[in-house]
Design a protein that fits this description.
Blueprint (H helix, E strand, L loop, with lengths): L1 E5 L6 H12 L2 E4 H10 L3 H12 L5 H14 L2 H4 L1 E4 L5 H14 L5 E6 L2 H9 L1 E4 L5 E3 L18 E2 L6 H15 L1 H9 L2 E5 L4 H13 L1
Parallel strand pairs: 1-3, 1-4, 2-3, 4-8
Antiparallel strand pairs: 5-6, 5-7
The chain binds adenosine monophosphate (AMP).
Adenosine monophosphate binds next to α2 and α3.
Length: about 220
């Protein structure tokens, strides 16, 4: 199964993608995670991407498309199936992805769109903490770690992403509306596409997605 998970920042794409990857044995491809790791490790990709991540702007399409093409080829998506989380985010990226799947002779099976109000996003993201080591995601209100600032899974340090500060969150929401939301219409015309309410609990949202996919 090959899936795309779309939705505004903070709707829970990363959390849901992780759970879906475990449940359906899919490879999770998160462009945000790959780019953040590259920035942290100061690779040449990271150096190019840093200013965009810091300001909440999108990294240029060519850079991200190269990255995804390499990842999908390297990781044998055909065998395992995959879930793309945080990609595509623009029409040229979506067109590029169509081409990549065409070249790999693989279908894109389903597009899941998670939907949520802006104010809920701002509240959620301001309270989000991410593990520097394993990438696990916590929310200080809904899903807090047992010990302050420490990851339950690996003991790594929890931090607040720079782009999870309120001003940057609002900017990222504007970027989403302008550049990414048009993808919903793009996909509705081409692939099975389901819109799912992203305001419930982690378990509720996960169940709603599985219900759609299991059909
Ligand atoms: P995310 O973790 O998905 O919220 O992504 C964090 C940041 O990484 C975004 O604000 C962008 O700067 C960059 N990014 C992630 N995925 C993409 C993408 N598909 N296209 C362009 N920029 C991206």
């Amino acid at each position: 199964m090959r899936l795309v998970l779309l939705g505004p920042p903070g709707v829970g794409k990363g959390t849901q993608a992780k759970l879906l990857a475990e449940h359906y044995d899919l490879i999770q491809v998160s462009t945000g995670d790959i780019l953040r790791e590259a920035v942290e490790r100061k690779t040449s990709l990271g150096k190019k991407a840093k200013k965009y991540l810091d300001s909440g702007e999108l990294v240029p399409d060519e850079i991200v498309l190269d990255l995804v093409r390499q990842t999908l080829e390297d990781k044998e998506c055909g065998e395992h199936g995959c879930i793309l989380d945080g990609f595509p985010r623009t029409i040229p990226q979506a067109e590029g992805l169509e081409k990549i799947f065409e070249d790999l002779e693989l279908p894109l099976d389903h597009v899941i769109v998670l939907d949520i109000d802006d104010e809920v996003v701002v509240r959620r993201l301001s309270n989000r903490r991410t593990c520097r080591n394993c990438g696990a995601i916590y929310n200080l209100n809904y899903n807090p770690p047992s010990g302050e600032g420490v990851c339950d899974k690996c003991g790594g340090e929890l931090y607040q992403r720079d782009d999870d500060k309120p001003e940057t969150i609002r900017h990222r929401l504007q970027v989403y509306k302008k550049q990414t939301e048009p993808l919903i219409a793009f996909y509705k015309e081409r692939h099975p596409t389901s819109i799912i309410d992203g305001s419930g609990s982690i378990d509720e949202i996960q169940q709603d997605i599985r219900n759609v996919l299991d059909e």
